[in-house]
Amino acid sequence: MTERTKPWFKKYEPNVPYSLNYEEVPLFKILEESAIKYSKKTAITFYNYSITYEELLKKVESFKTALHNLGIRKGDRVALMLPNTPHYIISYFAVLKLGAIVVQMNPLYSKSEIEFILKDSSPKALITLDLFLDKVIQIRDRVSTKIFIIGRIKEFLNFPLNFLYSLKTIFSKTPSIPNDFHVFSSLLYTNPQIIDVQINPKEDVAVLQYTGGTTGRPKGAMLTHFNLYSNVKQLIAWTTNIDYGNERTLIVIPLFHVYAMTVGMNYTIAVGGNIVLLPKFNLKEVIETIEKHKITNFPGVPAIYNAINNYKEIDKRNLTSIKLCLSGAAPLPIQVKQQFEKITGAKLIEGYGLSEASPVTHANPIYGENREGSIGLPLPDTDAKIVDLKTGEELPPGKEGELIIKGPQVMKGYWNNEEETRQVLKDGWLWTGDIAKMDEDGYFYIIDRKKDMIIVHGFNVYPRNIEEVLYKHPKIKEAAVVGIKKPEIADEIVKAYVVVKEGETLTKEELLNYLKEHLAYYEIPSEIEFTSEIPKSLIGKPLRRVLREKDSS
Predict the structure, then answer these.
(1) Contact at 8 Å (CB) between 293 and 504?
(2) pTM here?
């Protein structure tokens, strides 16, 4: 890439390079290096438990040896069905060091969803917690997985929390661990052995990250060691004010999601920072954790930042330790960004990525120019362009089309799914399925998902545009917009779901008058429904599909 051909280079911050030199090394190199450079620094904090980098690597080596003794070899899949606990981080790097493949699984999946992924990926082993044992026992005979490893939260709690947790579980309905299952904590006592495994970083898959597909069935994006290592290096190059060995990252978004895995865990380990884990989102607990541990990095999603903005006692809290928040997974309303930055003094930066790209491809400059509604500029060594939805021809600045991406972070393909791979990977370009545009300076703007676009009287209507206007209304806390099919008319209609701020009142007439001032006539919602909450995924994405299904039923 040259400065002449890529308009975004001129908007890079002065010390961000256009291109990087990437070592062809296994992803676990980031942990090994930090265990040398920052051996006595805290690597993980989990409530009242903490562990140094030196201790973390020792546990990883012991667990790696235990997995090897159980028969795990290079290329085998190992499913991690874990929340944000130290079990996840130890398991993740132990699996990678054997040349095996991490299969990311949401522990809150239904039994049928768990069964589908286990059948699709055929993992030799599954690692989970006793909290989810009931699901595992019910499906174990229907899948090929034979090795089950069960952890307990209390294994990584000190007194008195471990004692209190034990008391709590006595009265719970958690089933007993079957005799042929293995206990996580026991495996950590395995004497570590040197196990020689040759990794080809560009070819060998490190992670299967399951994501929705055009067919609606989840697909496993094959992310190689090189894909994931490259994305970490790109993020480090983009964040120019790193305090190596002293950063403190709060991870409350789930590690089984690619965003938390890379931007939260792998990035922090690579810079020798302290990962502070919370297994679930509780607003008061998040705020208290930021204050207590003086968190400096807080990757999240707009719903989390919006919740903090609306916390009733936020003016009594001190969140000024935060330096940087990279927001992803959903559009960041400008009102949310501005209010959060005012409260914390932090930089809240909108970025963009997808599971198939490890995931980050774009971000706004941290100290450079941020443009309203923009996902920012392509990261170093990342090429991006907008192409015509029908012809695939590249479009000039300002024109809307499909965003396609090329870079070292782009996946190898989908696991056992050549047809879907051919649809999204063409000549090295990843076709994202997102409608976007690029301005003259190389800033990109997501208009919407292709599948979320609404056709009204022949006009393309994008929910994100309407949601941005709704979020600017001073009485609105949250909003989501969907297209609804009506049997009596050919077109879809626009429907808005609105959550009003606590203590405020808002009528449909008042809201419609506001929208008429800010939207084209065909963008104005035909229906408005006031609701107490917008359904969201675990990482805070508004679930438009759920809203559409609600209306169709």
Answers:
(1) no
(2) 0.86
